Amino acid sequence: MTITVEIPESLVAHLGGGSPQQLSRQVLEAVVLEAFREDRLEIAEAAEILGFSRLEWNHFLKDRQVLEHAYSVEDLERDVAMIRRLRADGVLPPAI
To answer: The pTM is what?
Structure first.
């Protein structure tokens, strides 16, 4: 979906200027971050929307001084399932 938003020049200056693409990215990051803070997006969803790996997402949050408070039971179950798949595929060593 494409949405057009009018941004006052005074706000553009506070955002550091930049190209329309850079401003568009900043707006997308702000919207995703706010949705994550409000528990409307899970970690995996937020990272995917921004094209981040889990590690990049963690750095993104750290850079913005946001604690990763929304690690849900579903996130844990997904991570455990991924670890089990990686072990079964021989990518990770077996549990000790």
So the answer is: 0.65
- Taking the C-alpha atoms of residue 52 and residue 20, their distance in angstroms, rounded to an integer, is 21
Tokens representing 8 are 């006052």
Q: What ranges make up the beta strands (E) of 1-96?
A: none
Mind listing the pLDDT tens digit for each residue in 45-60? 999 999 999 899 999 9
Q: Checking phi first, is residue 53 left (phi over 0); if not, alpha (psi -120 to 50) or beta? A: beta
> Is 38:72 a contact under the CB 8 Å cutoff?
no
Q: Two tokens at 23?
A: 């401003």
What are the backbone dihedrals phi and psi of residue 26, each rounded to the nearest 5 degrees, phi first? -60, -40
- Cα–Cα distance for residue pair 54/41, rounded to 1 Å: 14
For 21, other C-beta atoms within 10 Å of its C-beta total 8
Residue 16 pLDDT grade (very low, low, confident, very high; cuts 50, 70, 90): confident
Ranges of each domain in the chain: 9-68
